[in-house]
Amino acid sequence: MPSHLGHIVICQLKVFMLTLLFGALAAPATAQDNLIESVGLFEDVTTSLSIDDVLQETFKPVRDTISLGYTTSAEWVRLRILPTQDEGEVVVLFGSGMPDDLRFYRPKITGSHGGDTELGDIQYQVLTPDWPSPLPGFRVSPPKGGADYFVRIESSGSIWLDISALPQSKALARTGQRYIVQITYLSLMFVLFLWALNMLVITRETLFSWFAALQFFWLVNNTLYLGYGDTLLPQLSPDIRYGVFRTSVFVSSFFSVAFHRHVMRRFNPAWLASRLFDIQLVVIVCAFVLFVSFDPILALQINAACLAAAPFVFLANAATAKKAGSPGLVTMRVIYGLLSMSFFFNAFAVLGVIDITALATHGYMIHGLSTGLLMFLLLHLRARDLFQAARQAEADKFEVERQTALQKEQNHTLSEFIEMLGHEAKNALGVINMSISTPNISDRQRERASEAIRGLKNLIDRCDQLIAVDKKEQALNLRQCDVVEILQKLRSGSMTPSRIELQSPDKAVVLGDPVLLGVVFGNLLENAQKYAPSNSDIWISISQVGDGYSILFENLQGDVGAPDPDKVFERYYRNPLAKREIGSGLGLYIAHSLTALMGGRLDYVPQDQRIRFRIWFP
After folding, report:
1. Mind telling me which residue stretches traverse the membrane in this protein (predicted)?
2. With b meaning 16 or more CB within 10 Å and e meaning fewer, what string describes 479-504?
3. Out of 3, 181, 456, 577, which could bridge 24 as a Cys pair, Cβ 3.0 to 4.6 Å?
């Protein structure tokens, strides 16, 4: 279990990161810093137009924050950029999201007519990104009065093209701000990933493994989306980096749905609501197959539509949940309600329904952060319940161990008492036996005294057997045994062998301990002789059943009646009418315990007015 100090350190680290993140998001560059005078957009459906062709086209005025992607077209952006007051360099920055291809064209004036610059006098050349930032940045020097710059963009996936043209000092501040926001965000997501791994090791709860996988693939996807792929994977070609990035989109989507499905299953939602998660997973897998085999853009659109339906799936499962799992139905519904709101706000910003620039440009981070923290809260409450349950289980275990130790001590004391009692009783019985062997008493008195002695000896033997069974110290020597031979010896050693009828094959070999088999059969035989009507027969029949042998002991019901079927194998149980006879109520309990110890089964199966016990051995 993690220490209290470690928990405090993690919480302080999260608070520090959140302070940096929201502080950076709350301090955007002012409108006066941006040197972009106007922005125009033109769609090249054929993707074949050159810069010279585009110069003749009409551009639609747009804002400097543009949503692009999910198209095979090439988008052209025309930027009218003004110079700085000191005519220094201007830095053009792009964000958020990594497009498949971005080309930046700057004008180069080659001649003039009557002092007026014309299109034919301007040549455009492609610039290589020369500004140190994860996403493309370019240094330009606009002439007095400003100039038009063009950007050609291709992106199969969704991106927010947040364009700014800033003086170099402001660009440095903006770039630093971006680094703070992004690194803080990625660090916080990495902390959540490590926390999930730590909780998985501690609790062995599979829920944390799903969350750890989700956080890991989110980290991979967000790192590539933010433009760090060129730095982290410089040895890979752009096409391979593109494939890795887009694949991470599908993998992170799959694990996101799988994680929420695993969470909701614990609350037992309606069958149809739970199947919605399965449909999402199937759609994501099919979309990925479509991506690698046929149409990447259509596949990304299907995947995006599938994720857009996530809030409705969350709400359907939360509303129909029936089982009060940890951390509680109400808590789960509140958390998933907030998570659905985060999804909706992010979608509304992308669609332009909500006009909040920060939410549009940083929506992926805000949504990722809110999702991570809400799921952290849910799992933290789950972990708290697990720790409480573990502490309670530990306390219960300690109490059971204490009770067991106390019971062992009581059993030990009782065992010593029984051993002492048995020893003294046997000595006394020996003296009595010698006394009744004299000719001074009648045969009837001698028979009754001998019967009482045998009853006392049997009682002492039962106590000894009980001690061995309860202490689990009974030696077990399993081997092939012939039960016919064992039963014949018991019948021969009986005081009334003529009462015992044995129906059996020549041999019936079972796997057992010959000594313990003798104890089990002896107890059942003695029980039948004691409680059956005087001089009535006792039947023992052996038959093969399945891959073993069934031994049936049967006798008529005597004056004491039949035992209670629910209590017949309980320790010390005796029929109230049977208490007129010497006995301990241990014979059947010991027979049942020893039979189970040898891998057999003993059942009470009465029929009409007959007492019947059936034993089966392999």
Report:
1. 179-200, 207-228, 240-260, 272-294, 300-321, 333-358, 364-381
2. eebbbbebbeebbeebeeeebbeeeb
3. 181
CA 307 from chain centre, in angstroms, equals 23
Residue 178 confidence class, pLDDT cut points 50, 70, 90: confident
Considering just the CA atoms, what is the radius of gyration of the chain in Å? 44
Per-residue model confidence (pLDDT) at position 207:
87
**Digit-coded pLDDT (tens) for 317-337:** 999 998 877 788 888 888 888
Paired residues of 519 in beta bridges: none
What is the average pLDDT across 302-316? Answer: 89
Closest residue by Cα to residue 135 from 170, 90, 89, 104: 104
Name the phi and psi angles at 17, rounded to 5.
Answer: -65, -40
Residue 142 preceded by cis peptide, ω within 30: no
pLDDT range class, residue 105, cuts 50, 70, 90: very high
Rounded CA-CA distance 210/200 in Å is 10
Query: Residue 179: pLDDT band by 50, 70, 90 thresholds?
Result: confident
Residue 462 has pLDDT above 70, yes or no: no
C-beta separation of 500 from 525 below 8 A: yes
pLDDT of residue 89 exceeding 70, the answer is: yes
Neighbours of 184 (CB within 10 A): 22
- Structure tokens that stand for 366 in this block: 């805000």
- The amino acid sitting at 383 is A
Chain centroid to CA 365? 27
C-alpha span between 63 and 55 (Å, rounded): 20
H/E stretch holding 464 reads: helix 443-470
Residue 561 has pLDDT above 50, yes or no: yes
> What DSSP element (H or E) covers 139?
strand 137-140
Q: β-strands 538-545, 500-503: how paired?
A: parallel
Distance (Å, rounded) from C-alpha 454 to C-alpha 431? 14
CA 206 – CA 617 distance, rounded (Å): 42
Q: For the CA atoms of 433, 434, 436, 437, what is the dihedral angle to 10 degrees?
A: 120
The pTM score is 0.59
Give the pLDDT confidence score for residue 6 in this predicted structure.
45
H or E segment to which residue 541 belongs:
strand 538-545
DSSP 458: H
Q: What angle do CA 180, 183, 187 make, to 5 degrees?
A: 130
Residue 307 CA to residue 53 CA, distance in Å, equals 38
